[in-house]
Structures are given as C-alpha cells and as structure tokens.
Predict the structure.
Amino acid sequence: MTQGVVTGGWNFVIAAYAITAAILTIYGVTLITRLREERLRASKDPNAE
Amino acid sequence: MNKRLFSAGVALLALAVYFAVLVTIADEYWNLNISLGLPVVARTLIAVFGGLIALVLFLAADDYSDYRQPNVLIAAGIMLFLIGSYFGLFVAPPEQFMGETQRIMYVHVPTAWFALVAMTLAAISAIVFLLGGNYKWDARLEASIEVGVVLAFLLCCQGSIWAKPTWGVWWDWDPRLTTTAVLLFAFIGVLALRRFVEDPLKRAIWSSVATIIAYVDVPIVYFSVKWWNSLHQQQSSPSTVSKPFWIPLRANAFGILLLMTGFIMLRSRIAALRLKNERPPLPVVEVTT
C-alpha cells in the first residue's frame, strides 16, 4: 500500500470470485443430489405420496 | 405451478434487467439512449422493486409440482452472473483508491443483499406458517434459512478476502462484521433446532418462533454502519457509484437473485418430500400369551 492507495490485489480478487463460484456450485450440486435421494425414497415408500 | 404468475415474474424481471443493466451498457459503451426518457431514480426503483416483486411472484407461483422452473431460474442466474463477472473482472476500470481489490464488491455486495433477503423470506414464511399452519410455508422456511446461511457464510468469506488488502486484517470485531457473524450463527442454530425435533408440528412452530427472534438481527446488520462507528463503509447509491461500476454490480445482483430463488424452490421441494417421507409412529401392538 502506498499513500492510501491499494496496489496489486488481483490474487485477492481471484480468490473471492473462485470461492463464490465454488460455494454456489457445491451447494447447487448438493441440492440436486438430495432432491434425487428424496424423490427415490418417496417412490419406494408406500406410505409417502 | 401457476404459469400466469410465473410468466408475470419473468416479464417483470426482464423489465428490471432492461432498465438496470441494458440501459447502462447502451449508454456507457454504445452511446445509445434507450432509457425511454426515464430518470435514473425511476430506473433504479423499477430495477429494485421489479426484481423483488418478480421473486415474490416466482415463489407464489410455485406449488412444488414442476421441476423445470427452478432449473430455468438457476440457468438464467448463472448466465447473468457470468456476464456480470466478465464486466467486473475485465471491462470495469480499477477504483481510484482500492485499485483492483474493489472488483470484489461486484460479488460481495449482491451476496450481502440476498443473504438478508433470504432471511427476510424465512421470517415471512415463519409468520405465515404460524398464522395458517400450512406446511408448504414450513418447507419454504427451512429452504430460505439454509440458502440464507450459505449466502451469509459466503459473505463472510468474501468480506475477509476484501478486508486483508484494505484493512490489513482478515477479520475485525467491528459492528457490521460482528452482527453478521451473530446472524449467521443464529440461523445455523435454527437449522440445528429443526434437526433435534422429531414431531413435525413442534418442529415447525418452534423453528418459526426462533426464526422471528433471529430475524431481529437483520435490521441491526443493515443499520450497524449508520448507528455505530464502523470500519465497514456505508451503503452506496447510484449517485455515489460511477456508471461503469453499475453494470457488473447489477448483473451479478440479478444473477444471485435468480440463483437464490431457484435454490429456495429446489430446497423447498426437498423439505416437502422429507415431510411426506417421515413415517407416522408405528402403533403399539399388545402381545398376549
């Protein structure tokens, strides 16, 4: 940092975008997986649906 | 799925994206005025309320029967997020004082907005469930809290990454950061509470009440930068942000709005299916010899 101006910082920017993409992607995948499991469970269970 | 409501949501969202993003791109990069004579304030209001009303319409249209609509919203959200990130990383200029690190704002600020919106949806779902007792709203409560927790966790990660080059530390017990951490852990607590209660009715009532109590922190998070002396900067407005910065910020905001909505719709289906799959208690059979 020189005279109140932040210099460089691309590594932090890349880290922020990468963690955003990673967390949203991983959460989306877990949703699809859990939804498949519950649908399968519902189709097997005679008490449900 | 109520197709009319869903279509109305799509139309409203398209209008919001037009005035928030396309008008600014045309003005900034193509020297074209396609604002239809509307001033900046009116366009901003259409963008904000158009987006939020579209979110309400999407959720109101959803009866958990159709699996295509959430996928469509998620795909549109990914597309807008990619466009916004392209502008944020490669087109928008670096900021005068924060340089390149300011590009983190384009993902950090929309994440903050929609973490609070997800918590607000959870609080609304809690109130509606307590008033009507419809388990559809209990499923929506669970979904909104979980998506809100994911966004709040992401928010804290992005904030830490931004804090290091600008403040010199990864974390500071500043009012904004502290109240956000309290919010995250309060809603994780509500999700934990739901895990511990087996009876569906008790679970729904207790978690609704806990959600309303936890929600008290949401306005405190929002106003913390105004009420206390905070390291964190105050909220911006179109008058305090340069035009080239509007495009990535707004495109990402609509992207995360659609992703959040699609995620809540999918997660509501999981909660509703789990409730159906929960077996009723087996009857006690008396054996006599």
